[in-house]
Each structure stands twice: as structure tokens, then as C-alpha cells.
Design a protein that fits this description.
Elements (H helix, E strand, L loop, with lengths): L7 H17 L9 E4 L4 E3 L4 E3 L4 E7 L3 H8 L2 E8 L4 E12 L3 H9 L2 H4 L30 H4 L6 E15 L6 E8 L2 E7 L2
Antiparallel strand pairs: 1-2, 1-5, 3-4, 4-7, 5-6, 6-7, 7-8, 8-9
């Protein structure tokens, strides 16, 4: 992506490409964005999928996590992505939807590795207080993956959050001059507005 490219459609297409790469490449800066709910709680999540056609971002979470109730209460949310190498920031407004025990979670669970499934086998819910530093994983699974059959219990705590993009605030930082482009969407078609960084 060239910072000198002033074509909004090119910027939109490049943004889609960055999000797609971020969902697939664990080492990419866009793989771990900050996700914020309307309750002003923010946390880093792992971008698991980007559906370009639906303009949706997906991540996984424990159904017992506090963010679930936050999304249930008010489903407007935000993502912040930043890549320090290319100096591009994305602030993305989304509408979040919780998937649990449906076709999306079943298909996603089938592709989830045992090492990741283990995270959903904790006896206590995320954010529970504890008397000692602990991840909540059962003692017999410390340092090892669960067996396939045992891992299936984790599905009861597994959910997928789908976040449909409403707005993208794109910012490119450069010594030659910063550039900022706002993108809103009508039927998934982008409407562009240049703004002062």
C-alpha cells in the first residue's frame, strides 16, 4: 500500500486485504486488535476471520466472559488496529452479534485446535477472583493438550462474536503528510469522506 495513493477505492480494497491477512497470519499486526464495548471496557482479541462480502470481523470468546453480557446489553462496539511498520491505524465501528451452539460455532469448533479448545475447559469463568496466580485449567491438563473426547466439553463455553462493520476511520501517518479517510457503508457499498487527521 502506498501512502501516496489518494484513491479511496484503492484504500478500501487495501484495507480489506490487510484485514484478511490479519485474520490468517498470526504474526501480522492486525491479528490482535483492541475490541471495546459501550461499557468502556477494552481488551485485545484475536481476529479469527474477516468476511469481506458481509464486512464482518469474527473472534472467539468464552460464553462466561464479561464481554458477553456487555454485548448483550448494548451491541455497538469498536475495534482499533495499528500496524507500526506501515503506520496505518483503523478505528472500526461495528454491531456485535453473539453466536452460540449454532452452525457457525459448530463449524468453527471443528476447526479449533486442541490447544485452543483447552482454554474453554476452565472450571471458573474468565475474570473470576482467585487466591493464587492461576489460569483455571484443570491440573491434569497443565502443559498438555486434552484428548479429543475431553475437549468436547469446552464447546459448552465456546462462542463466536460476529462484528458487522458500520464505519471505518482510516489513518495513514507519514512525514510527508498524514492522511485520514472516513468510510461509511450503505448495503456494503462504501461512501468516502476525506477528513483532517
Amino acid at each position: 500500500m502506498s501512502i501516496f495513493d489518494q484513491n479511496p477505492n484503492t484504500i478500501f480494497n487495501d484495507t480489506n486485504e490487510l484485514l484478511s491477512i490479519g485474520a490468517k497470519d498470526r504474526k501480522h499486526a492486525f491479528h490482535t486488535p483492541v475490541f471495546s464495548t459501550s461499557s468502556n471496557n477494552s481488551r485485545v482479541v484475536v481476529l479469527r476471520k474477516f468476511n469481506q462480502k458481509k464486512l464482518s470481523l469474527f473472534f472467539h470468546t468464552d460464553l462466561r466472559s464479561p464481554k458477553i453480557n456487555e454485548v448483550k446489553k448494548y451491541n455497538l462496539s469498536n475495534f482499533v488496529f495499528y500496524d507500526s511498520k506501515i503506520k496505518i491505524q483503523l478505528r472500526i465501528k461495528t454491531i456485535s452479534k453473539i453466536h452460540f451452539n449454532n452452525d457457525i460455532t459448530k463449524e468453527t469448533w471443528e476447526r479449533t485446535r486442541l490447544s485452543s479448545r483447552k482454554c474453554y475447559l476452565t472450571k471458573k469463568s474468565p475474570s473470576s477472583p482467585t487466591n493464587k496466580p492461576d489460569d483455571g485449567i484443570p491440573e491434569h491438563l497443565k502443559g498438555i493438550d486434552p484428548k479429543q473426547s475431553e475437549s468436547e466439553d469446552g464447546y459448552n463455553n465456546f462462542s463466536v462474536i460476529e462484528n458487522t462493520i458500520q464505519n471505518i476511520d482510516w489513518l495513514s501517518l507519514a512525514s510527508s503528510g498524514h492522511r485520514r479517510l472516513n468510510m461509511t457503508f450503505k448495503n456494503n457499498v462504501p461512501l468516502f469522506q476525506w477528513i483532517i487527521p
